[in-house]
Design brief:
Keywords: Oxidoreductase. This protein is of the alpha/beta class and 282 residues long. It is built from eleven helices and eight strands.
Length: 282
Amino acid sequence: MAKKLAVIGAGLMGSGIAQVSAQAGYDVVLRDVTDEALARGKGGIATSYEKFVSKGKLTAEQAEAALGRITTTTDLDAVADADIVVEAVFEKIEVKQEIFRTLDKLVRDDAVLASNTSAIPITKIAAVTGRPERVVGTHFFSPVPLMQLCELVRGYKTSDETLATARAFAEEIGKTCIVVNRDVAGFVTTRLISALVVEAVKLYEAGVASAEDIDVACKLGFGHAMGPLATTDLTGVDILLHATGNIYTESQDEKFAPPELMRRMVDAGDIGRKSGQGFYSY
């Protein structure tokens, strides 16, 4: 099995992917552009391992060993010998394409290049490389150590072998996979949540029902663990505005057109839990 993993981006997603992979026995190189970002990322991983130890889900020795398998670097060249590289940077196509252009020149011919994106077509990312058949989408869910799903996305040219390698990796680190066979913007999960969120925001914006009642309807009526507006606050109004905007731009499907209220909330800085105010106060 592939044992050397590189993760590009030490934010919440990247550090979460590094954490579960190291715990599963992978040697992980975690790369970001600043030492501060790396220190934050590795600190977050250590804290998360401590929580698992305190709950009896890991022994102190296992946590220490896993943490020891993660090395951090600001040097992109350090990922050159990785079997799998997972990019987990900001959801901006130009940023991702720039990284994949560089990775294409750096990594071994047999390496798998994966993007942890929730809405950007994999084909567009793969197209800037000379090996589009080796590029695949691995859309993990936040927080990675707790969420079981990984959405595997086949780009227009992704090979069966690449998809199989990505699936084996995701399953080894404890995830259940779904496969997206056609590279549509937003894949399966982001399209579903975006359609639900857009409609929920429109109902709230039009005064049809309160945020609380819309969320209760989804929880008790459909068995959702969390309502769409509370989910938006948790994920970030800005993140979901960006995701729905991406899908709308690609598909021109009106059901994904972001409501004006979402834009105004982002303009005002009311972006959910991280700002203390979204559809609810925190």
